[in-house]
Amino acid sequence: MTKIHRAFADLSVGQVHYAACGDLAAPVVLLLHQSPRSWAEYREVLPLIGRRFRAVAMDTAGFGDSEAGAMPASIEQWTRVAVELLDALGIARAHVVGHHTGGVIAVELASAFVGRVHGLVLSSTPYTDAAFRRARAERPPIDEVAPSTDGSHLAALWQKRQSFYPPERPELLEAFVLDALKVGRRLEEGHRAVASYRMEERIGKITQPTLILRATDDPFAAPHAAELQAQLPHARIVDIAGGMVPLPDQLPEAFAKAVLDFLETLP
Questions:
Q1: Which residues contact 114 (CB under 8 A, 6 or more apart)?
Q2: I want to staple 117 with a disulfide (CB 3.0 to 4.6 A). Which of 79, 101, 110, 236 is the partner?
Q3: Cβ neighbours for 170, distance < 8 A, ≥ 6 positions apart
Q4: CA-to-CA distance for 170 and 187, rounded, in angstroms?
Q5: Tens digit of each residue's pLDDT (9 = 90 or more) over 88-114
Q6: pTM for the whole thing?
Q7: Is 183:189 a contact under the CB 8 Å cutoff?
Q8: Are the C-beta atoms of 265 and 241 separated by less than 8 Å?
Q9: In what order do the strands lie in the sheet with 54-58?
Q10: What are the boundaries of each domain within the chain?
């Protein structure tokens, strides 16, 4: 198996953590995670993609082991930090893969830094237009729970996510809780950043070859695949049957195969 190497880069926000594997001379695939996860979402995917590419999974600023910096959390800020990481690693151009919040960051990266992105994979990515923002403003926080002295908030956090995870895979929910605990009181930052992002003003700038991955059992994101394709008529949709919210670490082989099948067709 391709070995994963972990390291930190000193960037404007402080130290940013990333994990990488594969040939240093190979084309790069940058993987961006959902909120409030970390690079660990791609722990099983990295070696599979690393067999043919240099695979790099970063912790978004403020998540995992990456420092948040002083700037307010936003999709635009997280995108700038991702570009800083590419610069620090000497990567001029990369394929970009994003899941959930990571997909929204990937949209901004591909639209704001066109020359830095070769191929684009949007996995379970919402389309955040005005209707999305209105609907999100009327809903309660996704993961936020009230702190307790007896630890019952940990069970509440588990229960909030339980229906979106495979019932026979408790280790996936454990991984979510571990990452959520690292984020602490900033647990909703990622969701708030997505809810305020004006994707409808940015997505039209995307010209890169694009793949939309739809996890068929993801109630949050699956309905958005058709909306994204309407905005990106050059994109195609690939369904991953049975995929739920934790798609990359739920079905890593299927996820990696879909990504590789797409990237290997690009010139």
A1: 205, 207, 208
A2: 110
A3: none
A4: 21
A5: 999 999 999 999 999 999 999 999 999
A6: 0.97
A7: yes
A8: no
A9: 5-11, 14-21, 54-58, 28-32, 94-99, 117-123, 210-215, 236-240
A10: 5-263
Both structure tokens of 251: 């079905």
Q: Token digits for 97? A: 């893969």
Tokens of 126: 């919402």
* Cβ–Cβ < 8 Å for 227, 100: no
Please state, as a whole number, how many other Cβ atoms lie within 10 Å of the Cβ of residue 8. Answer: 15
Q: Do β-strands 236-240 and 210-215 pair in parallel, antiparallel, or remain unpaired?
A: parallel
Work out the end-to-end distance of the chain between its first and last CA atoms, rounded to an integer number of angstroms. Answer: 27
| CA–CA separation, 243 and 241 (whole Å) | 6
Alpha helices for 215-267 (secondary structure H)? 224-231, 247-250, 252-263
At the topology level of CATH, where does 5-263 sit? Rossmann fold (3.40.50)
pLDDT of residue 51: 96
Residues sharing a CB contact under 8 Å with residue 216, sequence separation 6 or more, in sequence order: 222, 239, 240, 241, 242, 243
Residues in the chain: 267
